[in-house]
Amino acid sequence: MSSAIVVGAGPNGLAAAVTLAQRGMDVTVLEASDTIGGGTRSSERILPGLLHDDGAAVHPIGLASPFFRSLDLAAHGLEWAWSDIDLAHPLDGGRAGAMVASLDETVRLLGRDGGRWRALFGPLADSFDELAQEVLRPMVHVPRHLVPLARFGPAALLPATALGRIWRTDEAAALFAGNAAHGWHPLNRPTTSAFGLMFAAISHRYGWPVVKGGSARLTDALASVFTELGGCIETGHRVRSLTELPPADVVMLDLEPGAVADLAGDALPARVRKAYRRFRRAPAAFKVDFAVEGGLPWRDEYSSRAGTVHVCGSAAEVAAAEHDITRGRMPERPFVLVAQQYLADPQRSVGDVHPVYTYAHVPHGYTGDATEHIIAQLERFAPGTRERIIGAHARTPRALADHNPNLVGGDIIGGANTPLQLLMRPRVSTDPYYTGIPGVYICSASTPPGAGVHGMCGHNAALSALRRTERAG
């Protein structure tokens, strides 16, 4: 029987492990931490019983993932839950844009921009499953679904600020800009529209769900599938060099490129080592979990019912904040993502005390304290927030990296979404997963298709390994 070792038990490492085990390999996963999950762990940080997600919180791409959908994760304990509103984006004056799973309802809520919203996102949502098969894999491939790709591609290449000119209302413009900000890249740069298009289209196909009982349950479900296939997971096992690993036909590394270069040392071809060392990092997150009595007192009618709230203000303010962080400047009013998972999953709360998840977009490696920036943005749209906060737990970019070493400098998306890295990451290659060392592959979020809890990086990398193994055999 062929054997494989996977280093790292995040969603991508587990996806790689499952894929290899499904093909009959004897697979062992080695995880440095005492708990598996990487960016999909959950914990009680402030009060006993008050459940916070340590990393990823809302999972639109997870539910849409072709690989996850191929597994019967429900049989392994995974349950999805949805709030009434997927996304709200509050504006000054008590107004807000709202996006819900129903395209018809979103069109109605957006008024004058409803028709434009339907024209742009309706076709993408209708063909999203086919589109996902094209965009959740390396960009260099022979496409099988040309029509949805043709609908998506030309608009996706545009800067979000350019495509955003179609909107006539502040609400639609802010919704689109907030979705585009998930790229953590200046919105006046090419390809940033891709994120705005994807996140809205997913909403109208699958919604933006959370995992009942915390994001860690998704990790647990993947681990359950893997162990049922005969796989083995060893926690507390830190690997410092490839030479420490026992012989194996395949080695999968759920690690960021710099860590792969450290692990491989001189075994890595010089050109690959150089590419991994110059891999560009994205701006950072500054994360604060709050315990809030009675929930946030939003001024508008939608944010109090939304699982996700983008807090920054107008589309122009979002663009300005994203521009600043990529220039190394901390915005006075940063883009803040708020997740209120308890609206869909009430068991996360303790009585009338609710867990509120937030992070601000900050410069890479930011060393300041953005807690007050976040609270100020919340107060702006939910006055009285400060009085309701009974506890908080902050994680700086450095603390995020200490908790999960793949998050270098607080980069939670696995590398900058420059046009080149969006299309060819972690290096320019026809097989981005192959490290150049026979049998060794990288499968982290720094590989295609990039960030998100979807497992496709690991699944794609494992398929690459299987193809090379079969050819060698």
From TrEMBL:
Q: Which domain of life is it from?
A: Bacteria
Task: State the InterPro entries in the record.
Answer: FAD/NAD-bd_sf
Which is a Pfam family this sequence falls into?
NAD_binding_8
**Name listed for the protein in its UniProt record:** NAD(P)/FAD-dependent oxidoreductase
